[in-house]
Amino acid sequence: MDAITANNSTIYFNEKCYKALNKHIKLNNFSKIFILVDENTHQYCLASFLEKLETNISLEIIEIESGEINKTIDTCVGVWNTLSDLDADRKSLMINVGGGVITDLGGFVACTFKRGIAYINVPTTLLSMVDASVGGKTGVDLGHLKNQIGVIDSPDLVLIDTSFLNTLPTNQMRSGLAEMLKHGLISDIAYWNKFSDLSKLSLDDLDVLIYESVIIKRNVVTEDPRENGLRKTLNFGHTLGHAIETYFLGNENKTTLLHGEAIIIGMILACYISSELTGFPKTDRDFIKDLFIGYYGKTTIENVDIKPILELLKYDKKNSHGNINFVLLESIGKPKIDCIVDEQIILDAFKYYNN
């Protein structure tokens, strides 16, 4: 698979990753290399990565705890202090080896340490390969509110080695698949149709599907790097999905949802709202609901949960001028941005999901 350029970054795949990485290190006079991992990627991915890294530059491993709950400014402070203690300077390189928490947080740390050091993303989960590591969005959560603090600044390289997917549990693979399904719904009916029977997807299919998904996201972020228009379409399903994810994360009586699990619910809700407001065909709406619930199952969202979920909508990053802005669909592959939705229609969408 050929390399993909995206703004100021280049994305390499599989065997080409490490040739590009080693060449990049040789061409740049980095003073030190810092590799950010969590306990999982330290155990399952780091040794394989280091075997293919060719350099005599001093290496330091920094480990943080895994999980969205640790994607915070406090964690950043710990990493910043560690970089300072280990004499990192502006010619240092940070390599983020992990899922979306690692690439988001590691990118933010790199972009802000000494006003910015170089960084490379090595996504190890399906979600981070097709979403978090591509496009230059970095950041951390503010309490339980997702991605409230951050900057947009592209890594030097993104290295997608799909062999890392062999280390993932099934629920993490499904979480990543949700973003690929979203890419199909917002941009390309031919790509979407490849997912019409999720039970038939195999690991052998994934390399090509991942590559196509990255191209879809690359095309969007290249045209609109600062999210002024087209890039907003990538938030399809995320307005309510993020609110649901945040609510479940902060409620001790709920089982925490993975990002993709929450976004699947958000997309079902957005499809219902689309069928009410933008003419999205009800046959497509119902097919999507049945497909998603058949593969992901249904999450219990009780009536008592809905009001606090709606309260969280006011923190959505797409909001402007006091309006909550939704991304909806007119048809598969034809999204509509900046849609204002009456609360009653949102309540009806939850009824549709629950029934």
Characterization of this structure:
With 355 residues, the chain is of the alpha/beta class. The chain has two domains: 4-168, Rossmann fold (3-Layer(aba) Sandwich); 171-354, Dehydroquinate synthase-like, alpha domain, CATH 1.20.1090.10. 48% of the residues lie in helices and 16% in strands. It is built from 14 helices and eleven strands. Strand 5 (93-98), helix 5 (100-112) and strand 6 form a beta-alpha-beta unit. The mean pLDDT is 94.
Largest sheet: 7 strands, mixed
What fraction of the residues are assigned to beta strands by DSSP? 15-25%
Question: How many structural domains in the coordinates?
Answer: 2
Number of strands: 11
Q: What structural category characterises the helix and strand content?
A: alpha/beta
Distance between the termini: 43 Å
Low-confidence stretches: none
Output the CATH homologous superfamily of the largest domain.
Dehydroquinate synthase-like - alpha domain
Average of pLDDT: 94
Give the name of the CATH architecture of the largest domain: Up-down Bundle
* Spatial order of the strands forming the largest sheet: 1-2-9-6-5-3-4
Shape: globular
Radius of gyration: 20 Å
**Name of the CATH class of the largest domain:** Mainly Alpha
What is the H/E string? EEHEHHEHEHEHEEEHHHHHHHEEH
| Helix coverage percent | 40-55%
Number of helices: 14
CATH topology of the largest domain: Dehydroquinate synthase-like, alpha domain
